[in-house]
């Protein structure tokens, strides 16, 4: 017979939300709680791992913005942040453009001067910035993709630039669109609702603030408040069930995959939207109201993966902070097409160097959407082959060394993230 443990509050999930909920309850005097975490570790999408003599983040990596950002203020108060926020190559490009130490390349290997990229980036950034103004005016646009295409075409018609500059502007436009896919974890900007996009609040200040160590350090002071006996790892929850039909008075039974059960008065569910999308219809008894299930189903939850490549030599030069690859004209269409196996590597549009993080011989890149999902199905050697093929194409160098190590994420294949 399954063991049943009685407790006042069950928290499902030990990511940042679940741990913060537990900390808040304990500090408020509610200590009869238990946290059920499906995985064998804490943190959810915060996942820092050892790497050489230091560590790297497989999940959350930066604090985005300073002004009005509770995570920034919390981390700053705890002394967890770099004294001077570091510039990060792949994100916040335009905002930090005065510090650019990146190299920019066309698909045919042509190297583009930074000043041209800066000029073009300001134009494209202004176009995307117009999205934020749409919340206060009437418009017929449905997606960020539709709006940005229309506004870009309008801007280009009115510009007096030579053929070379026009080519760079179009290339930067495609490149920033690809970066937006990573920023928003979507397959296409045509899937990104413009009304939701312009309701997002951007915190001012440095767009990417680095931790002294890794993002995982922010969990330590929270976890320190929670007794280890309150945390149960490797406890996937299968069912959350009312013992009777009385929503007010009836106890709740939380059933775990290993057969154990918890009887409780309150349940706080903090699992990821991806996991909820996969399990909401079967997890709750009685079922969630139809409008809630429809809302969960309609909300998007995309995939973003990281890849770290380590080399024995720094072939890119010690002063370079990024190798940026302007995507092919057909890149977005290719990544949405049927032959993702032949095109997934086109989602890679840049590599950041990691010398500022204590890993001088490593490169980091991101990819999102169907390409990120497909990459998870490949073995390490195949991923390395395709990425090096892309670098050799853009840099016009056949002599590039093969990485001696690869570390990559597989968030889509994780059933507790999806």
Overview of this protein structure:
This protein is an alpha/beta fold and 418 residues long. The protein has helices spanning 16-27, 70-77, 114-129, 144-157, 163-184, 194-197, 220-223, 273-283, 290-298, 331-336, 340-343, 369-375, 380-395; strands at 4-12, 33-36, 48-51, 54-57, 62-63, 102-105, 111-112, 209-210, 231-232, 237-242, 252-256, 261-269, 284-285, 304-310, 322-325, 350-354, 359-368, 405-408. Residues 85-98 have low confidence and may be disordered.
* Spatial gap, N to C terminus: 32 Å
- Oligomer, anyone? single chain
Beta-strand segment tally: 18
Label the overall shape: globular
Give a summary of the structure in a few sentences:
The chain is of the alpha/beta class and 418 residues long. It has helices at 16-27, 70-77, 114-129, 144-157, 163-184, 194-197, 220-223, 273-283, 290-298, 331-336, 340-343, 369-375, 380-395, and strands spanning 4-12, 33-36, 48-51, 54-57, 62-63, 102-105, 111-112, 209-210, 231-232, 237-242, 252-256, 261-269, 284-285, 304-310, 322-325, 350-354, 359-368, 405-408.
């Amino acid at each position: 017979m399954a063991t049943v443990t009685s407790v006042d509050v069950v928290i499902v999930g030990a990511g940042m939300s679940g741990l913060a909920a537990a900390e808040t309850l304990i500090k408020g005097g509610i200590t009869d709680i238990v946290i059920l975490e499906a995985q064998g570790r804490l943190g959810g999408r915060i996942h820092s791992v050892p790497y050489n003599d230091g560590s790297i983040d497989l999940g959350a990596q930066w604090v985005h913005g300073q002004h009005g950002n509770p995570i920034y203020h919390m981390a700053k108060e705890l002394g967890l942040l770099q004294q001077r926020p570091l510039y990060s190559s792949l994100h916040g490009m335009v905002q930090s453009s005065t510090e650019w130490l990146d190299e920019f390349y066309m698909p045919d290997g042509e190297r583009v001067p930074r000043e041209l990229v800066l000029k073009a980036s300001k134009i494209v950034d202004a176009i995307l910035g117009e999205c934020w103004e749409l919340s206060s005016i009437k418009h017929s646009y449905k997606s960020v993709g539709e709006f940005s295409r229309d506004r870009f075409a309008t801007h280009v018609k009115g510009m007096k630039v030579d053929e070379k500059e026009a080519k760079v502007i179009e290339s930067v436009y495609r490149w920033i669109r690809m970066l937006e896919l990573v920023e928003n974890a979507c397959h296409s900007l045509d899937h990104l609702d413009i009304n939701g996009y312009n309701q997002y609040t951007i915190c001012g200040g440095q767009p990417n603030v680095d931790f002294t160590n890794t993002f995982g350090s922010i969990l330590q002071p929270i976890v320190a408040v929670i007794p280890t006996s309150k945390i149960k790892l490797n406890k996937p929850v299968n069912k959350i069930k009312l013992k009777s039909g009385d929503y007010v008075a009836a106890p709740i039974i939380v059933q775990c995959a290993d057969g154990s059960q918890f009887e409780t008065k309150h349940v706080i569910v903090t699992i990821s939207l991806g996991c909820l999308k996969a399990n909401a219809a079967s997890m709750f008894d009685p079922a969630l109201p139809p409008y809630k299930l429809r809302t969960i189903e309609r909300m998007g939850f995309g995939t973003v993966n990281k890849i770290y490549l380590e080399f024995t030599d720094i072939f890119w030069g010690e002063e370079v902070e990024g190798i940026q690859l302007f995507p092919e004209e057909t890149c977005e269409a290719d990544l949405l097409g049927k032959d993702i196996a032949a095109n997934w590597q086109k989602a890679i549009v840049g590599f950041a160097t990691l010398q500022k993080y204590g890993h001088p011989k490593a490169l980091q890149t991101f990819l999102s959407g169907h390409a990120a999902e497909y990459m998870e199905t490949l073995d390490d050697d195949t991923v390395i082959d395709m990425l090096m093929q892309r670098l050799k194409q853009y840099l016009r160098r056949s002599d590039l060394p093969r990485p001696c190590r690869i570390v990559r994420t597989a968030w889509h294949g994780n059933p507790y993230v999806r």
